[in-house]
Design a protein that fits this description.
- The complex is a heterodimer of chains A (187) and B (227).
- With 187 residues, chain A is an alpha+beta fold.
- Chain A has 8 helices and 3 strands; from the N terminus they run αααααβββααα.
- Chain A has helices at 3-25, 35-43, 51-66, 79-88, 91-104, 150-153, 157-168, 171-186, and strands at 109-116, 119-126, 137-143.
- The longest helix of chain A has 23 residues, at 3-25.
- Chain B is of the alpha+beta class and 227 residues long.
- Chain B is 50% helix and 14% strand.
- Chain B has 9 helices and 5 strands.
- Chain B has helices spanning 2-9, 46-76, 80-85, 87-106, 120-130, 133-146, 194-197, 201-208, 214-225, and strands at 13-16, 19-22, 151-158, 163-170, 181-187.
- A 3-stranded antiparallel beta sheet of chain B has the order 4-3-5. In chain B, strands 1-2 form a two-stranded antiparallel sheet.
- In chain B, α2 (46-76) runs antiparallel to α4, α5 (120-130) crosses α9 (214-225) and α6 (133-146) runs antiparallel to α8 (201-208).
- The longest helix of chain B is centred in the first third of the chain and has 31 residues, at 46-76.
- The chains are: A alpha+beta (187), B alpha+beta (227).
- The interface between A and B is medium-sized, with 19 and 20 residues.
Chain lengths: 187, 227
């Protein structure tokens, strides 16, 4: 993932979502809410209010940056691998299903690995939508809006997805979120 | 050799009383552009035009044909679940083929009339319904810039009411899904402009009018006006 992509994706796209969100919530009851609360409130049970798009996208992008690290990718170890092998039969089955979800999200959107009812699941969402609105716990995401990969891969979304999984995914971050989710559900 | 070649294009052969027959499967193909990839520069780069046509539109055509083949098989097997499940692939890829086929005709090099203002019935209708051509452009640019995610902004015609409507469709939904005839469509998927305009979709929209082929839109409008 090139520096140029980061400069635009983080510096322009993500920044614009943050600025827009701040402008829209200013002088409203949402102004002092946490971002996740704003997302759930403005989702409005599927009839989203104006701030939803920018709030959700601001959250999605921050989450996405944390899903990656230099020299990342490859097969995970430890607790997350055990859970993957339990809920998907094997890492390779999981990988196939995750890549498929990411490749077949029509138009703009995201593919997710989530914790749902104590089980791992793969979901895909359009545009700004994310699994928080359904009460699922996001563990990993990949941005499949074209701006995420077009400068580096043009139309070759499957190549971008493969590189993300082989070289960029931070399984440490995924594991940390899993641990946090389990602690939260046990209290 | 000839028989094998024709078999590749058709659904196969079977036995029917009277001998062999071949089953024709409707097969769509990528339309050619009537101008070079670089002919719309500097408004749209040759690199974008080439990728957009040879990769993106071609992929819609390929996947549309595949979906139709699967649909035909599902219909033959009376597999309702498969038939219904295939609808989204047909809509997405078929829509992509429809939309892009119109789009290439909506554009023309400057030396072939790209950017020249419309005449005749369409020009009058635009002035009447929007105030001026400029007002229409301002509106389409605002609507196009505000579209979230991927989609298209259209100047459409309601044939029954004879009215012009600015409308958007998400993803690759064709304008027919809104009951309108497409006169002019602008692709606002990021692949249509990103390599050149990056995140600044408004600049792409501002510039594309320099290569809009109003002759095509006029033709569709006149044809639709016939009783």
């Amino acid at each position: 993932m090139s520096q140029q992509t980061f400069e635009f994706h983080w510096g322009k796209h993500h920044r614009a979502y943050v600025d827009t969100c701040n402008n829209l919530i200013k002088d409203t009851e949402l102004e002092n809410c946490m971002l996740e609360e704003i997302i759930k409130k403005t989702y409005n049970n599927g009839d989203p209010q104006p701030a939803f798009n920018s709030a959700a996208q601001a959250w999605n992008h921050e989450f996405f940056w944390e899903c990656m690290k230099p020299q990342g990718g490859k097969k995970p170890k430890g607790e997350i691998l055990e859970l993957i092998e339990k809920d998907f039969d094997s890492y390779y089955e999981f990988l196939k299903e995750f890549k498929q979800a990411a490749a077949t999200q029509f138009g703009s959107g995201w593919a997710w690995l989530v914790l749902k009812d104590d089980k791992l699941a793969i979901e895909k969402t359009p545009n700004a939508l994310n699994p928080l609105v359904w009460g699922h716990v996001p563990l990993l995401t990949i941005d499949v809006w074209e701006h995420a990969y077009y400068l580096d891969y043009q139309n070759r979304r499957p190549d971008y997805i493969s590189v993300f999984m082989n070289e960029l995914v931070s399984w440490d971050a995924v594991t940390a979120r899993l641990v946090k989710a389990k602690e939260a559900s046990s209290t | 050799m000839a028989l094998l070649a024709s078999l590749r294009r058709t659904g196969g052969i079977g036995l029917k009383r009277g001998g062999l027959f071949t089953r024709e499967i409707q097969s769509f193909s990528l339309p050619e552009l009537s101008y070079e990839y670089s002919a719309l520069e500097p408004v749209i780069s040759g690199e974008i035009m080439s990728l957009h046509h040879q990769k993106h539109h071609q992929a819609y055509v390929t996947n549309y044909n595949k979906a139709l083949e699967q649909l035909e098989e599902a219909s033959a097997n009376k597999n309702s679940e498969a038939i219904v499940s295939l609808q989204s692939a047909v809509k997405f890829n078929g829509g992509g083929h429809i939309n892009h086929s119109v789009f290439w005709k909506n554009l023309a090099p400057v030396k072939e009339g790209g950017g020249e203002a419309p005449n005749g019935g369409l020009a009058k209708a635009i002035d009447t319904q929007f105030g001026s051509l400029n007002a229409l452009i301002v509106k389409m640019n605002a609507v196009g810039a505000a579209l979230q995610g991927s989609g298209w902004v259209w100047l459409g015609l309601n044939k029954d009411l004879k009215s012009l409507i600015v409308e958007t469709t998400p993803n690759q939904d064709p304008l027919v899904t809104k009951g309108l005839l497409p006169l002019l469509g602008i692709d606002v998927w990021e692949h249509a402009y990103y390599l050149q305009y990056k995140n600044v979709r408004p600049d792409y929209l501002k510039n594309i009018w320099k290569v809009i082929n109003w002759k095509y839109a006029e033709g569709v409008y006149e044809e639709a006006a016939k009783p």
